[in-house]
Automatic annotation (TrEMBL):
Coiled-coil stretches noted in the UniProt entry, renumbered to this chain: none
Domain OmpA-like residues, every copy: 129-246
Region (Disordered): 1-36
Protein known as: OmpA-like domain-containing protein
Gene3D superfamilies attached to this UniProt entry: OmpA-like domain
Organism: Rhodovulum sulfidophilum (Rhodobacter sulfidophilus)
InterPro entries: Bact_OuterMem_StrucFunc, OMP_bac, OmpA-like, OmpA-like_sf
């Protein structure tokens, strides 16, 4: 039985101190008569015994107040908790300002605008390869005997760069193709130039070159098998294939 724990210099330091919620029937101190001067007692939460005095009370014991009117945190305990709360908030505030240390207001505003832009792009370009193929577009086409990018091809590649810029878990393999009207010795270098033109434009838009790899198929793997000039145009193409970042 604790006769007057409030006089103990270690009151409020043990693991068992704090607010006790009086919900439902509460354990009673053995032999307690409710008289003055008896603050409470320790009731084991598990069938074990305390190892020592108040300073060594195990956390498996909790304090039961004999007087319900005193069943609240000690004033010194409340003040200590408040001081620690204030200190914690100050520390968190200091940590939150570390990323802006040394930046001018203009630099902070520019950084915030960039963060907002990236957040909007993440909504516009979800992390889904099927979305990339269907909505961004993975294929651009070229004129006959040319590796120059058309305005339509550049617009599609800008969308590809934006998608890759916010979905960093993917890299890209750029496949270059040609139609079959020329000899293989001509078609392979032409397809390689087309793949290189796509990769160079994506790099100019801000993508790191190490995230891109070019491969050349020449007239192989045709998109369409035909002889008409309009049909052959589908084979003069470059295709952006998404791969997991650690597989490139």
């Amino acid at each position: 039985m604790i006769q007057d724990a409030s006089r103990s210099p270690s009151f409020g330091r043990g693991r068992a101190h704090g607010r006790v919620r009086a919900r439902g029937p509460q354990p009673r101190c053995p032999g307690h008569d409710g008289g003055p001067g008896q603050l409470g007692c320790l009731v084991p939460a598990l069938p074990v015994q305390p190892r020592g005095g108040w300073r060594d009370v195990d956390h498996r014991f909790r304090l039961v107040f004999c007087d319900p009117a005193r069943s609240r945190a000690h004033p010194r305990t409340k003040g200590s908790m408040m001081r620690w709360t204030v200190r914690l908030l100050l520390c968190l505030g200091a940590l939150g300002g570390c990323d802006t240390l040394g930046l001018s207001p203009e630099e902070i505003a520019a950084r915030d605008r960039e963060a907002a832009r990236v957040a909007q792009l993440r909504v516009q370009y979800p992390d889904d390869p099927a979305f990339f193929r269907a909505n961004v577009g993975d294929t651009v086409h070229f004129a006959s005997d040319s590796s120059a990018l058309s305005p339509e091809a550049r617009a599609r590649l800008r969308r590809q760069a934006q998608w890759l810029g916010v979905n960093l878990g993917y890299d890209a393999v750029i496949e270059g193709y040609a139609d079959d009207r020329g000899p293989r010795g001509y078609n392979m270098p032409l397809a390689a130039r087309r793949s290189q033109a796509i990769a160079s434009y994506l790099v100019s838009l801000g993508l790191p070159r190490e995230r891109l790899r070019g491969v050349t198929f020449g007239e192989g793997n045709p998109a369409r098998t035909c002889e008409a000039p309009d049909c052959l145009a589908a084979n003069r193409r470059g295709v952006t294939i998404l791969v997991a970042g650690d597989l490139l």
